[in-house]
Amino acid sequence: MKWDEFAAAAPELAQLGREAFEEEHLAILGTLRKDGWPRISPCEAYFVDGELLLGMMPNSRKVFDLRRDDRITVVNGQAERIPRRGDFKLHGHAREILDETLREHLADAQEAAIDWRPPAEAPTFAVDILTASYISFGDNHRLMRWSPEGGLEHLRHPDD
Fold first, then answer.
1. Is the dihedral of CA 41, 47, 49, 52 positive or negative?
2. Which of 7, 47, 86, 115 could be stapled to 136 by a disulfide with Cβ–Cβ 3.0 to 4.6 Å?
3. Contact 129, 17 (CB under 8 A)
4. What is the CATH number of the domain that holds 127?
5. What is the pLDDT of residues 113-160, one digit of tens each?
6. In a domain, 160, yes or no
């Protein structure tokens, strides 16, 4: 499901994810290498036209991974041991975006956010969401997960 569909189905969780990704436009992307081992790579994440889009460098290994096997895990980037925004995770599939209008909208968003425009050949992938989860730490910690079958669940936190 596209980001805007996920946000309609789980608005509380989607808001936490949006805040986490928009803070620095950084995501950690999990893909599967050709030999089956997992690969984790940083990439940029932007919300454009109802989609969560991932920008990547041309010919990066993660691009080849996704073109071979579209299964992904996406996690917001972290710079602190106890992240201010918690850990937001998505599991799903990557869908390569070939539509020039959507690709231009992503380039516009990147240029507005970081004063840099990707080259025209830079690959773009959208995240099709299957499940999502969130965990935060500290005094107001919480744990949530969402799936289309189970809806949003507030779970017992491991620190409780």
1. positive
2. 86
3. no
4. 2.30.110.10
5. 999 999 999 999 999 999 999 999 988 899 999 999 999 999 999 999
6. no
Residues 142-159 as b/e (b if ≥16 CB within 10 A, e otherwise) read ebbbbbeeeebeeeeeee
Interval 95-123: pLDDT, tens: 999 999 999 999 999 999 999 999 999 99
**Domain count along the chain:** 1
The whole-angstrom distance between residue 141's C-alpha and the CA centroid of its chain comes to: 22
- d(CA 40, CA 33) in angstroms, rounded, equals 10
Among the listed residues 7, 5, 8, the one whose alpha carbon sits nearest the alpha carbon of residue 17: 7
Alpha-carbon distance of 67 to 96, in angstroms, equals 8
Is the whole model's pTM more than 0.85, yes or no? Answer: yes
53 vs 73: CA distance, rounded Å: 13
- 141, 159 Cβ separation under 8 angstroms: yes
Q: Is residue 60 part of a domain?
A: yes
Q: Which domain holds residue 131?
A: 3-155
Instruction: Specify the 3-state DSSP secondary structure of 58.
Output: coil
